[in-house]
Structure formats: C-alpha cells, structure tokens
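*** Backbone structure tokens ***
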Amino acid sequence: MADKIDLYSDKGAKLKSGVDIQAISPLKNSAIKSIIQGIKRTAAVDLAGIEKTLATGAFGGKGRRVLGREIKLDVVKNAETIRSKVEKLVSVESGDDTVVKSLNGGKQLLVQVPSARIDLGAEYVASLTSAASATTQALIEQFKVDIFNAPTIKSAVWG
C-alpha cells in the first residue's frame, strides 16, 4: 500500500486529496522532472552586488575590506554586454537551450546553462561554476582588466 498525500496550491488551497506519493516522483512525473532539471540548470548572478563589492573592496563578508583593492567599474550600466558575453561563454553550441536574462534593470542575471552541461557533468554545481567563471571572464574582457586586478574580479564574483 502506497502512501497518500494531499496537494495544495501556493496559496494554500487544497487541489487534490489522496494522491499516491509515487505520482509526484520525478522518476514518473515529467512535470516534476522538468522542474528539477530547470532548478539544476539555473544560477543567479548579482551584478549590482559585484559592482558594490569591487567599489568597496569588501571581500569575504560583512565588515571585511581589503583596502587598496577597490575597483570602480560600471557593471550594471554594461549589463547587456556582460549578459551577451556570459551567454556566449556558457553555451555549448549555437541553438542549445542556454538562457541568460538580464533582470531588474541589469542588476541581476538569470543564467540557465545548457542541459548538456548538467547531463554530462560529474558533479552537481555545473550551473554555478559555469555562471561564475563566465561572469568573471566577461567582466575581465569588458573592462580590459589587467593581470594584476583579475584576481580581484574573481574574488568579487566567486565570493
């Protein structure tokens, strides 16, 4: 005998009662599988936060600053160019299911890496690693950051 559950909407209204727990398994339910795959492919990039971190030199958490390592870059103002570069760097091939969207006036990026990166990845953080490394490279290219300041960009992006 399988366990039964009740399903509720995000507003708390009961949608269905007595549903077999196996019915919501991603192994049997393609909608749930699609949701999980979407989550695994998705990473958020806080461009406004990166800009602020670089401007203040506040690496490594609240109250920690590296004086003399501040870099003033108009990251948010250049969000569309950065978005385009990130998309090109993250994509495996032209026409794949890569999605890179600019949100909140360029303050954030939503990055969905192509399914191929997740399907063939040996670990579970391919989306985060791909998004962070592509963002780092895009910023270095966009602002022509030299070899001495590139590690500062990496610290701001990777945290």
In short: Residues 43-158 form a domain with the Alpha-Beta Plaits fold (CATH 3.30.70.470). The helical segments are 30-41, 47-56, 79-90, 115-119, 126-142, 150-158. The two ends are 48 Å apart (CA to CA). The chain has a mean pLDDT of 94.
